Amino acid sequence: MKTCSFSDTLYDQISAALLESWSLQTSSKWTADNPARGQCGVTALVVQDRLGGEILKTMTAGGWHYYNRINNKVYDFTASQFAGEIEYLHVLSSRADAFSDTNQEQYESLSGRMAELLDRQ
Fold first, then answer.
1. DSSP conformation class of 23
2. Is residue 2 assigned to a domain?
3. What does residue 40 show for φ and ψ, rounded to 5 degrees?
């Protein structure tokens, strides 16, 4: 698995690209008022594709929530979907586990849109 150096600038670029990429095609739970809703599994997968690292999970009231650890630092690009604070357990997960939260069409949609946005920068 690849690992890259992860700067604040890259974090901002990834965050902006995700916000622009999330849609009903990437999660059936997406809404304009809460674009990160339901995006955690697919986002963790696509972020790992681009930046390496590990996929972690923690239990929330709605079930498992997926996020990333890159260079020993935790990044949760979809935390904004929750109204309150998240109590992170940092349980090591897997791609297969995170994929159980999404499907191939949603994954391909987010991956393709992210590539379009980030590869032109």
1. S
2. no
3. -65, -45
The widest CA-to-CA distance across the chain, in whole angstroms, is 38
Are the C-beta atoms of 31 and 37 separated by less than 8 Å? yes
- How many Cβ atoms are within 10 Å of 25's Cβ, its own excluded? 15
Is residue 88 one of the residues assigned to a domain?
yes
Q: Is residue 1 part of a domain?
A: no
Residue 78 lies in a domain: yes
Phi, psi of 94 (to 5 degrees): -145, 165
* Residue numbers of the domain that contains 113: 8-119
Query: Tokens representing 80?
Result: 């904004």
Pairing, β 73-75 against β 63-70 = antiparallel
Give the pLDDT mean for 60-81. 95
Q: Which two tokens stand for residue 74?
A: 């935790």
The reported pLDDT for the residue numbered 6 is 62
d(CA 22, CA 19): 6
pTM of the predicted model as reported, rounded to 2 decimal places:
0.93
d(CA 117, CA 85): 30
> How far lies 2's CA from each of 17, 18, 39, 74, in Å?
20, 20, 23, 16
Does the structure show a pLDDT above 70 at 34? Answer: yes
